[in-house]
Write a structure and sequence with these properties.
The chain is mainly beta and 116 residues long. The protein has a domain at 32-103. The chain has strands at 5-9, 20-30, 33-42, 45-48, 60-63, 66-69, 71-73, 76-83, 86-94, 98-99, 102-103, 106-114. Strand 8 (76-83) and strand 9 (86-94) form a beta hairpin. It starts with a strand and ends with a strand. Mean pLDDT is 83; it is low at 1-9.
């Protein structure tokens, strides 16, 4: 199906009609990370291997010798970040779900709308 293509959609239709014309296009939907809690701790934050605070990139930190790896389960992400003598744990929801321990950044969807 091409961008902006005209096609006939089948399925549930208004009474007496078998199909209706529709235009379809691909649209990018951007994901969102909605913070539900954020807690900071005093510790020597030694290392991080993502963009420090990026819910769309996986990573981990080492604070006072203990490693914390970001994880995402059931659309809930636990994100770790460092700043000198403090590390922060941020928890929140991923609007498009999770993949490989991160929030999904974007998806492309085909949206069809009836032609009136």
């Amino acid at each position: 199906m091409a961008f902006g293509a005209l096609l006939y959609v089948t399925g549930p239709q208004p009474a007496g009609e078998l199909a209706y014309p529709a235009t379809c296009e691909k649209r990018t939907v951007n994901g969102e990370f909605r913070v539900s809690s954020q807690v900071s701790f005093d510790a020597n934050c030694e290392y991080f291997n993502d963009n420090n605070y990026d819910p769309f990139a996986s990573g981990s930190i080492t604070a006072d010798g203990q490693t914390f790896t970001e994880r995402c389960e059931d659309n809930v992400l636990t994100e770790y970040s460092c700043s000198g003598q403090t590390y922060t744990v941020t928890t929140g929801s991923c609007s498009l779900g999770c993949n490989d321990g991160t929030c999904i950044k974007s998806v492309t969807k085909t949206i069809c709308e009836p032609v009136i």
